[in-house]
Amino acid sequence: MEKILSSLVFTxxxxxxxxxxxxxxxxxxxxxxxxxxxxxxxxxxxxxxxxATNTSGLSIDSIAVRINGKHRFLGMHxxxxxxxxxxxxxxxxxxxxxxxxxxxxALAHAVGKKTTVCKKDVxxxxxxxxxxxxxxxxxxLVEEGIADIADVDACMKYGLGFRYAAFGPFEVxxxxxxxxxxxxxxxxxxELCNATDTQKLLDDLYKEGNYGVKSGKGFYDYSGxxxxxxxxxxxxxxxxxxxxxxx
Length: 247
Ligand SMILES: NC(=O)c1ccc[n+]([C@@H]2O[C@H](COP(=O)([O-])OP(=O)(O)OC[C@H]3O[C@@H](n4cnc5c(N)ncnc54)[C@H](O)[C@@H]3O)[C@@H](O)[C@H]2O)c1
Known about the structure:
The chain is an alpha/beta fold and 247 residues long. It has helices spanning 2-6, 31-42, 60-63, 98-110, 127-143, 149-164, 169-176, 178-188, 200-207, 226-246, and strands at 22-25, 50-53, 73-78, 87-92, 114-118. The protein has 3 domains: 2-118, NAD(P)-binding Rossmann-like Domain (Rossmann fold); 126-196, N-(1-d-carboxylethyl)-l-norvaline Dehydrogenase, domain 2; 208-247. Helix content is 47%, strand content 10%. A 5-stranded mixed sheet has the order 1-2-3-4-5, sandwiched between helices. A hairpin with an 8-residue loop joins strand 3 and strand 4. The longest helix is centred in the last third of the chain and has 21 residues, at 226-246. 15% of the residues are buried. Nicotinamide-adenine-dinucleotide (NAD) binds next to helix 2 and strand 3.
């Protein structure tokens, strides 16, 4: 760890980045600020420098509007907490070339990460489209009085999420049987929540200023020292899963 930390260099001078092989930007999630940053940076660096943004959800093409060399620009979304979650989501813009994509994948693998590639610059990329689909149905189950919040979480943690830590949805279907899931989808798809606006349960908490662990209350209570304990517990569990499956 000391060796890693001692090799880091901090600077406010963007010209210090002129000779980098790759630049991964992780500044505030505001489009105009990212556009300004990249316009400036892309004109300072070498022509073969790969340019990556850690944006969680801004359009890659929108960030790239004033970039010099759009073919070498792409999304490299590290998932929070980045030191524990193995996966990095790589998002291609409409002009990103194969060489830049392959180089970023190779870099991620070289530092021990897994990758998932989003071939189109769509809202939510892959991770947040999957995450919000699950969240939308979870909120609906609670709002419809079908299950309590803790029971939805229990179903994910001890059931579905346990599977998903090891196998993706397509692998799960192959184990369960295409015929079985074909039958289920024929009657269940039309029953699922298709809300297009933010749902009330989430909206109410937001309007009350209850933002979750960071404010001391969200769907659960984190007052007093419970927030610190919850974060420690989260990181310990992620580390156990990481060690069990990937170390
Ligand atoms: N927080 C997460 O969970 C998470 C997860 C994955 C990806 N991301 C993405 O990573 C990026 C950073 O997220 P964050 O939560 O650290 O954001 P943040 O709002 O805490 O800001 C990150 C940094 O941006 C700097 N900054 C602000 N204005 C700037 C400017 N004009 N020029 C240069 N730097 C400036 C700030 O000093 C700060 O250090 C965002 O694009 C975000 O979407 C965040």
